Amino acid sequence: MNAAELRRRLRAVLRERSKAARIAAGVLLVAGGLLGFLPVLGFWMIPLGLAVLSYDFPPARRAWVGLRLWWRSRRNGPLPPGASTAGDEPG
Fold first, then answer.
1. pTM of the complete model
2. With contact defined as beta carbons under 8 Å apart, do 54 and 64 qualify?
């Protein structure tokens, strides 16, 4: 599965009209990610689950934005003081 396909599938889940389906999918992904040391499941499921949950829950949105900022700082160096994080919010 490449990045484009993953984004397409994530958008499909976020477009679902059922809030319960999004919540269930997000919780299952995070729970599966916590068991990432087992075969088939993986730690990659945690950020994906946070992304799905962030659509409906502000605490998950804050965790998702924090994770994205942390990842960006690891890849590109830290943001300068006072830099805007606008655009980091999903949805």
1. 0.55
2. yes
